Amino acid sequence: MRVIVPLQGVVQGTGGLFWGSVIPCALFYFLQLLFKTKTRHHHPPSNHNHHSTLHRSLSPTPRHATASAYVSPRANSITAANSPYYLGLHRVADDPYHQTHNPQGVIQLAFDQNTLSLDLIQEWIHSNGTAAMLGKPLSVSGIVPYQPLHGFMELKLAVARFMSRVLEKPVFFNPSRMVLTAGATSAIEILTFCLADHGNAFLVPTPLSPGFDGVVKWRTGVEIVPVPCRSTDDFNLSITSLERTFNQAKKRGQKVRGIIMTNPSNPAGKLLNRETLLDLLDFAREKNIHIISNEMFAGSSYGDEEFVSMAEIMEAEDHDRDRVHIVFGLSNELSVPGLKAGAIYSYNDNVVAAASKLARFSTVSAPTQRLLISMLSDTSFVQKFIEVNKLRLRKMYDTFVAGLKQLGIECTRSSGGFCCWADMSSLIRSYNEKGELELWDRLLNVSKINVTPGSSCHCIEPGWFRFCFATWTEKDVCVVMERIQRIYDATK
Amino acid sequence: MTQTRKPSSKPEAREAQNPSFSSSGMKLIVPLQGVVQGRGGLLLGTLVPCALFYFLQLYLKRRRSTANCNPPSPSSEPTLPRTSSRSNLSARGSISRVRISRLATQISRPDESLYYVGLDRVSRDPYHALDNPDGVIQLGLADNKLCLDLIGEWVARNLEDSVVGTGLNINGIAPYQTYDGLMELKMALSDFMHQVMGESVKFDPSNMVLTAGATPAIEILSFCLADQGNAFLVPTPYYPGFDRDVRWRPGVDLIPVHCRSADNFNLNITALEQAYSQARKRGVKVRGILISNPSNPVGNIMTQDMLYSLLDFAEEKNIHIIADEVFAGSTYGSEKFVSLAEILDSDYIDKSRVHIVYGLSKDLSLAGFRVGVICSFNDSVLAAAKKLSRFSSISAPTQRLVTSMLSDKRFIREYFETNRKRIQQVHDEFVDCLSKLGIKCAKSCAGMYCWADMNGLIRPYSEKGEIELWEKFLSIAKINITPGSSCHCIEPGWFRICFTTITLEEIPLVIERIRRVVESCKSSS
C-alpha cells in the first residue's frame, strides 16, 4: 500500500491532526478547482457568430483572431426564439392580403391591435393636431428640447383622468404614482426588473399572449410559471389552480415573486370579477408576493359584465398596498398601434422611484405626449370615442363569432380584447400539439390565413386558436370564413 | 528497585504521558484524532476535514452574497446633506413587507452622482429670462437650443402635411409590426448620416435598428455583446450616463482607461493595453471598448491613425468596439470628423466587431423626439437588437415627422450651415470669456461642451475640493455644471460646461455669475 502508508504515516505522525486536516483539504480544494476548470472548458462561448470569419488573406499581417467576435448567449437565445408566431409574421410580410390590390394574399389574424376606430383619431388630429403639438402661440419649445424622461406631468394628469373615464367609475389615480413608458410591453418589462431578480419567477395564467414570455424573460432572466386555465372553467382563472402551481414551484425551488394577470385576458378575453380580484389580493398577501394587473385592454371591454379594475379594489384598501402595480396601454385604448405610449401605476413608492429612472430606456416621444395631452383633455371627444370604439368592437366580435359558429367552430365568450378564442379541435388530425401545428400550417398555406395556435399561447389543451379581428372590416370577415371553409372541404 | 526502573521507564512514561495528555485535556482533539487513528482511519481522516472545509466555504460564500446584496453606490461622493437626508426619512418603503428586486433597491435610492443631483436642482428652480431670472441656469445637459428657431419654423410650416394630414394611417405602412423603425425613416436617416459624417461613408438601412434615443441603443448593445459580470473598457473622462446605460440592467462593468491633460485627454493605446491586462489578471472578461467620438466631455475627435490602432487592438484581443458618434455633426474646429464606419471600408477588417450609435438629439436638436439608431454589421447582434427594440420603439407620428424633415434636403443643408456657424461663434466667445477669467479650456473641436480647468480655484487639490467648488457654482452662481469626478476624470478640478443651452446674448450673464465664484474663491484663499 504504497499510497496509503505514507499518508497514514503523515496522518498519524507528528502534528498528526494538523497534517491530517491540511492534506485532505488541499486535495479536496484542488479537486474542486479541477471540476471548475473542466466545466469552463465545456461551456465556452459556444454561440460564436460564424458569419464573419476572415477569409481574405490579402493583408500581410498575420491575424491571430480568426475567431469571430463574441456575441452574448442572452442575445443568441433571443434570436433563437422562433415560434410559429414569428414564422407567420414573416409569411404575411412576404404576401400581405389587401382587399383590392392583393385579394389572394395571406390575411393577418395574429396581429392583436385595434384599428377599428382609427378614423375617429385621424379626424381629431386633422382638426386639432397642429395646435396640440405646438400649442398657442405655435412654438416647438414644448416638443423639441429634453423633457423629463418619465413623462410630462400634464400627460400623467390627463392619463389619470382618462383612465377614470374608461373605467366608467370615479376611481382616483394619483399622477405622481404614474410612470409613462414607450408602450405597455416596456411597462411590463420595467416592472419585472423592479420586482424580481434574475432566476426568480412570476405566475402567469395561460393561455397568454404569444411573445409575452419574451417580454418578461429576455433581458430580466425572470421565469414564467404557467398557471393553466381550462375550457371547463371557460378559461377563467381559478385560485385553487394558482395555489397548486405556487406550491409546485416552491417544491422545485423556484422563488415566485409575483403574479401577472391580464384583465381582460388575451387571448380568451375573460374579465376577472370582483370576488376573484379580492381572492387574488388575499393570495398575494398570504404568500407575500406582488400583483401586476395588466389592464392594457381595459378600454376594449365590450361585454355585458362590468369591468373591475384593480385600482377600484385598491381604493377600498388602506394598508398593505405596496404589492399592487397596474399597467395601461394607451396605444390599445386609442386604437392607434404605433403610438407607443403606456403607463405603470404602482402603489409602491420605491417601485415608482426605480421605474421612473428606468423609464429613460423607454421614453415616449414629446410630440406624441403633447398630442395625447390635448386629445385626452378633450372630454367630449374622449367620451364619444370610448362609446363608439366599444360598439364597433362588439359588433366585430359578434360577426366573427357568428361566422365561425356557422362553420361549426365554437368560441369562448369573450368580454374584451381584440381576439376570439376558437376551439378547432374537431379539425385537427391528432389531438396533440403536433396536430395543432399541422392545422396551423394548413391554415397558413392552404387557407392563407395567419392565426395563432394555442401552443404559442401555452394553452394546455390542444386545438385552440386565436383570431384577431380588430384590424379588418366585415367584408374581410366573409373572406376569412370562406377561406376556413376550404380547410373543412379538404378534411371532408 | 523503583530507582533503577526510573530511567528505563522514562520513555515509557513519556509515551504513557502523551496519550494521557491527549485523552485528558483537549476534548475536541481526541475524537478527531481517534477517528484519524482508528479503524478506517484514512478514509474518515480525509472525509471529516473535507466536510468541515466544505461547510467553511459555504459559510464564506453566504457571507459574501449577503454583503453583495447591498452593492456599493457607484460614486463615492458625499451626499448633499439636505435632499438625501430628507428622502432617507421616508419610512414608507422601509417598513414594506413585500420584497422588491435588488436592482430596484439600488436604483430607487436618491442619486449620489452630482451629475444627476445638479439636473434635479435645475428642474426645481429653472432659469427663465423673463419669468425666473434668478433661477439656476442649466449648463450640464447638452440641449442644443441655438437653432430652435429654424426647427420651429420648419415644424410650423410642415406639421400639417407630414403628420396631421396623412395622419396615422398605418394601412399604408405594413400589416405587421416593425418595432425597429419604418424603412422610410431608416433610409432618410442613412442619407442624413452620410451627409453629417463628411459624405464619405454609406450606411445600409438594413444594418440599422432604430430606438427611442441613443440611451436605449447603448443599453441594447450592452445586452447583446456582453454577459452579466463582463466589462467594457472606456476612456475617461466619459459621459456620466454610461454608468447607468451599461451597468444597471445589462450588469456590465465599466473599466476606466485614464487619459490625461498632458495628452489633451486623447486616448493612448498603452493605457488601453494596461487596463486590459490588469482586468484579465483580476479575472474580468473584457468584451469591448466603449468610446464616444467626438468625445463627451472633452470634445476632441479621434484621428484616423487612432481609429486604426483601436481596430487593431480590438482585433488582437477579439473584442468589440461601440462608438457613440452622437456629436458627429456638431464640429466647429479645423479637424475633420472621421467615423469608425469609414475606416471599415477597407477589406481586411472584421466588420462584425464594430457598432455605431447615433441619434438626433444633438446634431438636429430633437432631444424631445427620442430618435436613436444602432448601426451594426454583425447579423446576430442586429437580429437580437431588432427584437429588443420593441421595448424602446419610436412613436409612429414622430417617425413620420422626422422622415419628412430629413427628406427636406434644402432645410437640412441650411440647418447644418447655420448650426455649425452658431456653435462656433458661441464656443469661441465663451472660451475667450472664460480665459479672461483665468480659466483655460481643453482644446476641443466638436461637441457642445467646454472642458474647463479650474484647478486653480479648488482647495484642496482633490475630489473634495472639486465638489465644494461645484456646490459654490450651484448655490452662489446658480449655474449647474458637471464636475469632472462625475465623468470619472482622474485629475481633479476639471468641469464640463455646456454652451449650447444659452444664446450669444446670455453669455455675459453666465460669465458674470462665474466671475462671482472665481472672486469668492480668490478672496477665500
Automatic annotation (TrEMBL), chain A:
SUPFAM superfamilies: PLP-dependent transferases
Domain Aminotransferase class I/classII large as annotated: residue spans: 109-484
Annotated keywords: Aminotransferase, Membrane, Pyridoxal phosphate, Transferase, Transmembrane, Transmembrane helix
Domain of life: Eukaryota
Transmembrane regions listed in the UniProt entry: 16-35
Region entry Disordered, spans: 41-70
Name used for this protein in its record: Aminotransferase ACS10
Organism of derivation: Cajanus cajan (Pigeon pea)
Automatic annotation (TrEMBL), chain B:
Keyword vocabulary terms for this entry: Aminotransferase, Ethylene biosynthesis, Fruit ripening, Membrane, Pyridoxal phosphate, S-adenosyl-L-methionine, Transferase, Transmembrane, Transmembrane helix
Superkingdom of the organism of origin: Eukaryota
InterPro entries associated with the record: Aminotransferase_I/II_large, Ethylene_sulfur-biosynth, NHTrfase_class1_PyrdxlP-BS, PyrdxlP-dep_Trfase, PyrdxlP-dep_Trfase_major, PyrdxlP-dep_Trfase_small
Keyword presence, Protein biosynthesis: no
Disordered: region residues: 1-22, 66-92
A single BP term in Gene Ontology: ethylene biosynthetic process
PROSITE patterns hit by this protein: AA_TRANSFER_CLASS_1 (PS00105)
EC numbers, comma separated: 4.4.1.14
An example Gene Ontology molecular-function term: aromatic-amino-acid transaminase activity
Record has Membrane as a keyword: yes
CDD domains: AAT_like
Top enzyme class: lyase
Transmembrane segments: 41-60
Catalyzed reactions: S-adenosyl-L-methionine = 1-aminocyclopropane-1-carboxylate + S-methyl-5'-thioadenosine + H(+)
Pathway in which the depicted protein is active: Alkene biosynthesis; ethylene biosynthesis via S-adenosyl-L-methionine; ethylene from S-adenosyl-L-methionine: step 1/2
Protein family according to the UniProt entry: Belongs to the class-I pyridoxal-phosphate-dependent aminotransferase family.
Oligomer and partners: Homodimer.
Descriptive protein name: 1-aminocyclopropane-1-carboxylate synthase
Biological source species: Cajanus cajan
Lineage, highest ranks first: Eukaryota, Viridiplantae, Streptophyta, Embryophyta, Tracheophyta
